[in-house]
Amino acid sequence: MPTQLTVTWAAVYLEVLVVLLVFALGFSALVLRLAVPEDLRRFIRHRWTMTLWIILTVVLALVAVSLVWFLHPCSGASLPRWQETLGGLAITVVLGLTVVFWWAQMKERSRESIIRGLERDCIRNLRRRRGLVEKPLADLIHLGKQGNTGYEKEIVLKAFGGVAASVQDRPRYAGNELVELVQGIEKTLVGGQKIGDFDNFLLAVQVLDDILSPLRTPKLSAAPDMAVALQTLERLGGASLKLGFEQATLIIVQAVAAAAEGPSGDVRLACESLLEIGRSALMDTKRFLVAVAALSRLEALAETRYPLKGEVAANLLGLLAHFWGSGRTARRHGRSVLERMGEHFEPSLQDCMKAAIECQYRTTRFDTADKLIEMLGCVQGVALPH
After folding, report:
1. pLDDT for residue 235
2. Structure pTM?
3. For the chain, how many structural domains are there in total?
C-alpha cells in the first residue's frame, strides 16, 4: 500500500489544480463579455467548445485523483520510474489540453468560424434528417441581419449558397425546401439596421441565380422555390434602385429574364417581376436605363409567346403604359414598341388593353391600371374611360 500523502503535498496539488480551473473559467468568461459582440455570445456558449470544457474538467479530476492517491511523493522511499513518467505525462496532458482549449476558444470567437459551423450543421442535419433544420438556418439569418456591411454579410451569403447547393444536389429535392433560406438572403441585405453594399447585392444575385438554375426543368419550374426566388430578385431590384446600385439592378434584370429562358422557364412570374422592376425604375427613382432594360427583356420574353394574350400581355402592356405616362420621350419609346408588336396581340390590341386593366386592378396595381386607361384612351383616340 502506498505511503500516505502528507498534508503539505496534498494542499499544493489541490491548490494548483483548483487555481488552474478557476482561472480558465473566470478569464474565459471575462474575455467573452469584453471582447465578443453580443450577437455572437449565445452561439459561442452552445458550440462544440462546451464539449472541450467537459473533457478538460474530467481530465483535471482524473489527474487530481491520480496525484493524490497513486503518484504522490513517498516519505520514506522513492517512486518507481514508471510512476514518475506517468506523473509527468499527466501534468503535460493537463497543460496541453489547456492550450488547446484556449486556442479553440479564440478560434470559435470569430464570426466566420461560427457561420461556417452553422453551415456545416445545416448540411449535416440535411443528410441525417433529409431536410433543413430550422434552428441553425434561423441562426444564420440572424447573423446575416446583424452583420456589418461588406465582409460579414458576404460570408453569410456564401454560407446560404453552400447550403442551397447541398439541398438541390439531393435526388429527393422537390423544389419546396429553400423558401426560408431565400427569404433569409433578402433579410441579410435589407432586413436589418445595416444594409448590404454593392458587392453584397452582386453576391446575393449570384446565389439566387445558382438556386434558380436547377429549377428550370419541367418538373420544378412551378415549384415554390422558383416563385420565392423570383419575388426576392424583384424586391432586391427595387431596393438596389433606391440605394443607387444601378448596375446591380441591371444584373438582377438579366437574372430574372434568364429564369424564364427555355421551354421550362416561368415566363409569367418573370414578366411580372420585370414589370415591377421597370415600374419602380420609372416612377420611384427615374432610372430610365434600368426601365428600358426591363422593357427590352420583357419584350424578348413576350416574343417567344406569340400570339400575345393573358398575363404576359397584361404585364407587357402595363410596363408600356408606365413609359406612356413618363414624359414625351419615354412615351415615344413605348409607342415604338407598341407599334412593332401591336399586330401580335390576340384578339386585338384594344381588347388586350381592356383585359390588362382588369388584370392589374385584380392584383391591386392601381397605378398601373390608371396608366393603362390613359394609354387606351390615346390609342382609341377618344376621351379617357371612367
Report:
1. 95
2. 0.75
3. 3
